[in-house]
Amino acid sequence: MALKVGLTSVKFEKGISIKSVSSAAGTMEGEGPLGGYIDILVNDNLYGKKTWEKAEAEFVKKAVETAVGKACLGFGDIDYILAGDLQNQSAASCYGIKDFGLPFFGLYGACSTFGEGLALGSILIDSGCGKNVVCEASSHFSAAEKQFRFPNELGNQRPRTSTWTVTGAGAAVLSEGGDTPCITGITTGRIVDLGITDANNMGAAMAPAAADVILSHFKDFGTDANSYDRIFTGDLGSVGSGLLTELLSEKGCDITRQHRDCGMLIYDTEKQDVHAGGSGCACSAVTFSMIYKKLLKGEYNKILFIPTGALMNPTSVAQGENIMGICHLIMIERRS
Amino acid sequence: MALKVGLTSVKFEKGISIKSVSSAAGTMEGEGPLGGYIDILVNDNLYGKKTWEKAEAEFVKKAVETAVGKACLGFGDIDYILAGDLQNQSAASCYGIKDFGLPFFGLYGACSTFGEGLALGSILIDSGCGKNVVCEASSHFSAAEKQFRFPNELGNQRPRTSTWTVTGAGAAVLSEGGDTPCITGITTGRIVDLGITDANNMGAAMAPAAADVILSHFKDFGTDANSYDRIFTGDLGSVGSGLLTELLSEKGCDITRQHRDCGMLIYDTEKQDVHAGGSGCACSAVTFSMIYKKLLKGEYNKILFIPTGALMNPTSVAQGENIMGICHLIMIERRS
To answer: Which among B129, B212, B327 is the top mutation candidate for probing chain A, defined by the most A β-carbons within 10 Å of its own β-carbon?
Structure first.
């Protein structure tokens, strides 16, 4: 039984096992510092398909198959799949998982979707609705640029605040049992709107939501940054990470020693031309492969994993609406 | 504690109370047979806003405020909000609920989203994650036509198989306690792909998924159509409803006496020019106001509520992908 903690958090006394984690990603990601942690590296961002959208669905499919396989399970052992992506109407997820025949809850939390999946997946396990749940999220640079910004062929110049959408997918199998490492708590994000309108500065739109969920978490659990070995945000990039530090310091909170941003880890921001860092649902979902391995090895004992999302669409931006942020926080611990 | 039943169902021994239900809708819906059940009727589908997209967000806001008010609760009493819609990146939900400051899980199940919300909302309550959860879904005819099909100004002729997207929003507050009427079980839908490619025949794309979830439910719970007073599908319309009957009869199953489709109830299909019926997330979500009132009055004792969804986007259709279906089944009972 889950225990509500404070206003926006939940504690799982027994812990939800993270039985396996997988990732599939493209060329740029393979060449980046985390390339060695990615299960399936594809040197063709079209993945042998005719369109980027179909390629993304293939990344989804492969990440899910790999996660289920690594957990030594078959699809008949999986009770639910939770998935989402950035394509309109979450198309990459739907086409990627359609052949698995699994009860499916489609999610949308922008680039925080993998965190939303881990949160709801944990609750499904904890409540007794199932023994094994797959959580998955994906993104694709070319599909996202075309859909959210400009046609790739336009060769539009990208401002320094822009981030590079990660091409790939990440998946995890959550299971009952409380084996290590396990999810021991979640803090669910609220929509935070600080009036950002620049679709090329998502970091700024998401930083306030990251600050909100982190402060809520510390308050709900009576912890601070020193309680954790690492605090990973999803895809704030250099601009958003700087803003997060500022927003937290205004509240007397300093996480700089523990904080890392998946968007700053997945690419070599000096050598790879990604401007402010990586982004997209797959940014945190693929980086999670590295985090999980370090948890398994004992390099971390207790971490916060906080995928960050920007809520908007091109029509809403054209109509003058703000870009808002939401983040979902997952607390993960090793248990001996 | 939830009890898993069969392959794809869950039973809530204690029952999840449906504390309140609300709806807000537009002109056509007000003029239809269910007009008297809708809380907020707006005789202006722009709802005083400059765009249809903003109008839809206003329907969302009003439906949620009304549901919370009818439950005699304040926003401080609400633990989570689950919402989704048909706009790209679920924009109507995000902008509609942003000011409420609630922990938010964004969902996407196409027109089955309200069912997905009721399912996950029930699990959140059952697991102890919260005492009160708001579930909401919306759609808007003009926003949907523009986004999925043709610009409204084109005056494009609609084929007889097409349905009319409902303009409005529906919301419900779920609470712990097991008061009547309550949700006593769910059967979670799987993606079903029967090779439909016509974006003007969503009923045909969804009927196979409806048949799948109904047969799964009957098997999991050991029931048949006679166990229920009514079986409400979401928005199959006349074409999809006919197909559902055919598909079920192939399996020796007859639900015709109990079956009603929200898409055939919300408009007067003789007098209102909606072709095959109503559709959209709001179709089942708004019709739920009538269903709930009849449950309260004792006209029904046990029903199945099955919002139906078609998974696609215009890009996927243009790239030759099939339109797939998914449906989420909610079992609701009166308890004395």
So the answer is: B129
| Cβ contacts of B128 within 8 Å, gap of 6 or more | A1, A2, A3, A4
Residue B202 structure tokens: 């969503």
Same topology between domain B2-175 and domain B182-333? yes
Residue B87 near residue B147 (C-beta atoms within 8 A): yes
- pLDDT at residue number B80: 98
How close is the nearest chain A Cα to the Cα of B187, in Å? 9
CB contact under 8 A, A107 and B106: yes
Q: Are the C-beta atoms of residues B169 and B62 closer than 8 Å to each other?
A: yes
The residue of chain A nearest to residue B82, with distances taken between CA atoms, is A107
pLDDT in tens, B167-220: 999 999 999 987 889 999 999 999 999 999 988 888 999 999 999 999 999 999
Q: How far apart are the first and last CA of chain B?
A: 21
Flag if B86 and A88 touch (Cβ within 8 Å): no
Alpha-carbon distance A298 to A37, whole Å? 16
CATH architecture assignment, domain A182-333: 3-Layer(aba) Sandwich (3.40)
Q: pLDDT band at residue B159, thresholds of 50, 70 and 90?
A: confident
**Residues 158-177 (B) with a CB less than 8 A from some CB of A:** none
Cα distance from B270 to chain A (closest Cα, Å)?
32
The sign of the CA dihedral B73, B74, B78, B81 is positive
Give me chain B's average pLDDT, please: 96
Classify the complex by whether its ipTM is higher than 0.85, answering yes or no. Answer: yes
Given an 8 Å threshold on Cβ–Cβ distance, is A188 in contact with B80? Answer: yes
Q: Which residues of A touch B120 (CB under 8 A)?
A: 105, 120
Q: Give me the pLDDT at residue B177, please.
A: 86
Q: In chain B, what residues touch A147 (CB-CB under 8 Å)?
A: 315
Task: Give residue B199's pLDDT.
Answer: 83
Instruction: Please list the ranges in chain A whose pLDDT falls under 50.
Output: none
Contacts of B315 in chain A (CB under 8 A): 53, 87-88, 91, 147
CB atoms near residue A74 (< 10 Å): 9
Which residues of chain B have a CB within 8 Å of the CB of A149?
none
B270: Cα separation from own chain's centroid: 23
Across the interface, do A95 and B188 touch by the CB < 8 Å criterion?
Answer: no
CA A259 to chain centre: 16
Domain ranges of chain A: 3-175, 182-333
CATH of B2-175, one of 3.40.605.10, 3.40.47.40, 3.10.310.10, 3.90.550.10: 3.40.47.40
Domain A3-175 class? Answer: alpha beta
Q: Is the pLDDT of residue B308 over 90?
A: yes
